Amino acid sequence: MFQTLRDSNISAFQVSEFILMGFPGIHSWQHWLSLPLALLYLLVLSANIFILIIINQEVTLHQPMYYFLGILAVVDMGLATTIMPKILAILLFSAKAISLPACFAQMYVIHCFVGMESGIFACMAIDRYVAICQPLRYPSIITESFVVKTTVFMTLRNTLTIIPIPVLAAQRYYCAQNQIEHCLCSNLGVTSLSCDDRTINSIYQLLLAWILMGSDLGLIILSYILILHSVLKLNSAEATSKALSTCTSHLILILFFYTVVVVISITHSAVMTVPIIPVLLNVLHNVIPPALNPMVYALKNKELRQGLYKVLKLDINRN
């Protein structure tokens, strides 16, 4: 799609490629960041693969809640893999050039995965609401069919609504400047180089954020308000503690995810005295949650811990 788009508008582009400069203000020593970022990327892959192995091998985990967690693991690995190989290539080998179609494609995939992660968080909140507030109806509401339908809906929602972002970016007129003070092809970072009006790009991204992620966050907040209201009515302190414990890990990850999204939006709009901050936040936002998600769930969930123990015990026996 992007190659065709480029061919049809080739006269509009005065540059043949973009140059991703990396982290602004620290170009001379940014290569030292390659080691911690590489380790973080390996953690993302290994931890999420481990989660998928545990869910696959442990029959007791073949339940909708863990299916959502498995989908989240796939999305997390996809998001990190979309950006980290290129970032490491920039830091280690100064491979800063990226073609226009590749840049727009990366922009599209990043937005798709971030939207998917937001959507899966919303689905998991609904799962917890039904499990705690309507436990008797849980088996009939949260079924495998429900998981499939919501996943298909979230996939179509994001893949279709995100298309205008790279398409609109490709329509801009890039007259001369092609150096992007960033590690990845963000929509705002790329379109800021255009010589014509990019208002429509900013408006569409803002509307998309409010409609998609805003609706997801609203659904999550509503779900947890209802959960809290239901839990506070429980007579048993033990039952209350157990119900809240099952939601704690989910809330921690959600708060981090959406808080960083808001901070990134503010820092991109503001004139920063330290320009590295929004770039670093943007990179970490695409890597930290994928690294934290499996670890937090494994530590807070008894069934996952038991499954982890069984998988490790099997591996030890094989050796």
From TrEMBL:
Membrane topology, from the record: Multi-pass membrane protein
Q: InterPro entries from the xrefs?
A: GPCR_Rhodpsn, GPCR_Rhodpsn_7TM, Olfact_rcpt, OR51/52/56-like
Occurrences of domain G-protein coupled receptors family 1 profile (ranges): 47-297
Q: Which is a Gene Ontology cellular component entry for this protein?
A: plasma membrane
GO MF annotations in UniProt:
G protein-coupled receptor activity; olfactory receptor activity
The record's keywords, sorted A to Z, are: G-protein coupled receptor, Membrane, Olfaction, Receptor, Sensory transduction, Transducer, Transmembrane, Transmembrane helix
Where found in the cell?
Answer: Membrane
Q: Does the keyword Membrane apply?
A: yes
The parts of the chain that form a coiled coil are none
**GO annotation terms (biological process):** cellular response to lipid
TM ranges: 35-55, 67-93, 105-126, 207-232, 252-281
Q: Which Gene3D superfamilies match?
A: Rhodopsin 7-helix transmembrane proteins
Q: Which Pfam families match?
A: 7tm_4 (PF13853)
Q: What does this protein do?
A: Putative odorant or sperm cell receptor.
Q: Which named protein is this?
A: Olfactory receptor 56B2
Naturally occurring in which organism (per UniProt): Pteropus vampyrus
Q: What is the lineage of its organism?
A: Eukaryota, Metazoa, Chordata, Craniata, Vertebrata
Gene that specifies this protein: LOC105307610
